[in-house]
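Quiz preparation item.
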């Protein structure tokens, strides 16, 4: 009976074993033998490592370029090339390579700790270079920036941040309806909404009615996030059907909630005096929204860009912030704002907020 012996070891595997023993010359010889049948990504990655360990950094980069010519999306080749360029004292070239690598980086949950550390280092270098470029551009155009008003100046600064790669471009990401060609503006100019001052003037009255409501909330405050069973909850798992983020509706999808409105007559009358959107089955929606201490709302977007939202803070136990896109504002009692909720937004603090 013929019995086949164990298969011969793969030359690339043998080369890796040689590198584990710091035998660079032996590894390169084995790789020459492997490449006799044609260059491959696997042999190229091992050869680049051998050249790197042997101190031939330009040679390692050249081999990685051959690997990337075969597969431009080889993540480890990009990450390795960036690291070698850093070692060669070429951080700006490394940043360009790292940017491409980070775009295709696997989830860190699937990476070993050493790779997570490498990815983190690449991300830090990219962020530092973006900040350096942003600051350089701001200094270079300081005179032009000084000619801008407050709002135009903020817009100018954000444009430089996006150009430098320091911030992502702001975009609308509605969950349901995206009406084409509407502007993506995080916070809208107050001048478009002259009724805001009337709303803000009623803050003390609204707070008084809310506090009475909170003293005997009954079943009015219910979890704001309430997905039915079988629906993917994604980032809302911790808040789904949780009282940590609750709401009491005065209007919901265009329907007036008579019981809640009867308990807040002054607030209801004030709201009815404002130009709320009236659309059967859809709008307006008006709610008291409450967070328990240390509750975190994850970044999220709203349903459609054909509407805007108004927030008025009512109870602020401490400093709190709110981010929409690249813009973060401090909450101020008696100060409302209008924003596009189809742009990613989130509270900037875990302190209690009710508004």
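Solution:
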């Amino acid at each position: 009976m013929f019995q086949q012996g164990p298969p011969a070891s793969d030359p690339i595997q043998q080369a890796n074993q040689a590198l584990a023993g710091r035998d660079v010359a032996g590894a390169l010889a084995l790789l020459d033998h492997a490449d006799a049948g044609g260059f491959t990504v696997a042999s190229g990655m091992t050869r680049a490592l051998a050249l790197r360990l042997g101190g031939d950094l330009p040679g390692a980069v050249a081999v990685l370029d051959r690997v990337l010519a075969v597969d431009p999306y080889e993540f480890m080749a990009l990450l390795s090339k960036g690291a070698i360029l850093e070692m060669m004292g070429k951080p700006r070239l490394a940043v360009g390579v790292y940017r491409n690598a980070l775009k295709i980086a696997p989830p860190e949950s699937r990476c070993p700790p050493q790779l997570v550390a490498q990815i983190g280092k690449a991300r830090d270098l990219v962020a530092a270079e973006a900040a350096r470029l942003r600051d350089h551009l701001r200094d270079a155009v300081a005179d032009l920036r000084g000619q801008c008003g407050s709002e135009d100046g903020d817009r100018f600064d954000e444009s430089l941040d996006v150009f430098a790669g320091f911030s992502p471009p702001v975009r609308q990401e509605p969950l349901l309806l995206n009406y084409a060609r509407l502007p993506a503006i995080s916070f809208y100019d107050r001048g478009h909404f002259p009724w805001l001052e009337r709303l803000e003037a009623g803050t003390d009255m609204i707070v008084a009615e809310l506090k009475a409501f909170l003293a005997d909330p009954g079943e009015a405050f219910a979890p704001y996030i309430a997905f039915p069973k079988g629906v993917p909850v994604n980032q809302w798992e911790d808040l789904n059907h949780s009282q940590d983020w609750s709401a009491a509706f005065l209007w919901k999808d265009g329907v007036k909630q008579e019981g809640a409105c009867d308990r807040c007559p002054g607030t209801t009358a004030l709201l009815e005096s404002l130009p709320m959107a009236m659309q059967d089955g859809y709008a307006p929606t008006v709610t008291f929204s409450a967070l328990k201490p240390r509750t975190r709302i994850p970044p999220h977007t709203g349903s459609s860009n054909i509407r805007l939202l108004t927030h008025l803070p009512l109870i602020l136990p401490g400093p709190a912030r709110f981010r929409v896109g690249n813009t973060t504002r401090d909450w101020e009692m008696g100060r409302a704002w209008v924003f596009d909720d189809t742009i990613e937004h989130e509270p900037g603090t875990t302190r209690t907020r009710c508004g």
